[in-house]
Amino acid sequence: MQKALRLSVSVMAFLSLSAASLPAQFIDLGFNFGAAFYSGDLSPNSPLQRLQEMRPAAGIFCRLSTSNKWSSRFNLNFASIAGDDSRTHRVQRGLAFQTNFTEFSAIAEWHAIRIRHTEYSFTFPYVFGGIGLMHFNPRREVNGEWVELQPLGTEGQGLPGYDAPYRLTQPMLPFGAGIKFITRNFTFGLEFGARFMQTDYLDDVSDRLINHQDVFLGNGPLAASLSSPRLGGAEAVDTDYRRGGASRDWAYLMNLTVSYNFGRGIHKMLSDPVPCPSFKKPTGRSL
Known about the structure:
Blueprint: H1 2-21, E1 26-39, H2 47-52, E2 55-65, E3 70-84, E4 96-111, E5 122-136, E6 139-142, E7 145-148, E8 169-182, E9 186-197, E10 209-211, H3 212-219, H4 221-227, E11 240-242, E12 250-261, H5 265-271
Antiparallel strand pairs: 1-2, 1-12, 2-3, 3-4, 4-5, 5-8, 6-7, 8-9, 9-12, 10-11
Helix pairs in contact: 3-4
């Protein structure tokens, strides 16, 4: 996992430096707002029900249009997702989570129609893909208080014979599609994107084989109770179970985007040297 994190950071740094060195045709600065939801071990099976689990999302971005078909974009997003067995067919399992997350991503956009900023308005479909990092921290409400799940080790993390605690910052691969409405100075968009996670612990649940007695004795009654609410945390029970499946978790964002086009002005201002002052020699006869 450390190797994947280093690779993700290196690729994002390379993309940032590459984009900064290109002669950008247009530079857009903007913001996005919309909703987020997730697909994982605690999500409903029905796609419609997953949409009903949507929570707010927002962010800011910078877009560099380096050709008539391609542009690069750098996003900083903030969102929230949640899952609860009480809203699925797995009510007896009794698991639940909620997490806010922050993501930074470097994305390439490909437009089906050439990008043109004119005084008229045009609609452009596009697809995108890239790489990024996401920071999350799954929690659950217990007796009116929010408890962080990762430090508890609900699946025996940190105990002999079990995995190490999972990292709260993970690489991810964002991709999706959208449509833009472009005017001379503004760009309005509607976008849907998925985040392919490199972890199955976005919801603190995986397919790891766990022994309730191990968790109870090693990580405490609260960890055992939240690991398996059905067995609880009153006493250690020598039984094995799996809380989830092997599939990795996914996060999804649906956003409306608004950006202002600065044209070549910012790039020219940053790249052109400041001209030296010049003085004209006075003409005419001197007294």
